[in-house]
């Protein structure tokens, strides 16, 4: 990935190309244009939330969602967007230095994957070795989770 690449700029470019379908387009496509527009907005929002969740300098939070209010799903989407922005501002005020979070997120993901693998393959009651492994993974996940707070 190039050093000049920016998730925020990519999201801005994607959002600027989203145009609500005209009524003639909706009628000509039997509503398919509206469904495609809706899915494109939901996809853009999901990508924006993913970028916002990963701490880095350019989170793409400046992406503006201009959704026409005549869509049923517009108000809930804008409401969720506002809540994520509010939480982000709170998090930024609490701790401006969250550079190492990606490591913790990866470690939690690894621990949870190991725990779920154990849960799928283990028969109860647990053998002593499996019991110790589960306890170790749970403790490790708890410590990592506490470090994220």
Automatic annotation (TrEMBL):
The keyword Nucleus does not apply. It is found in: Membrane. Pfam families: ROH1-like. It is a single-pass membrane protein. One of its GO terms (cellular component) is membrane. Coiled coil: none annotated. InterPro entries: ROH1-like. The keyword Membrane applies. Belongs to the ROH1 family. This is Uncharacterized protein. It comes from Pinus taeda. The lineage of its organism: Eukaryota, Viridiplantae, Streptophyta, Embryophyta, Tracheophyta.
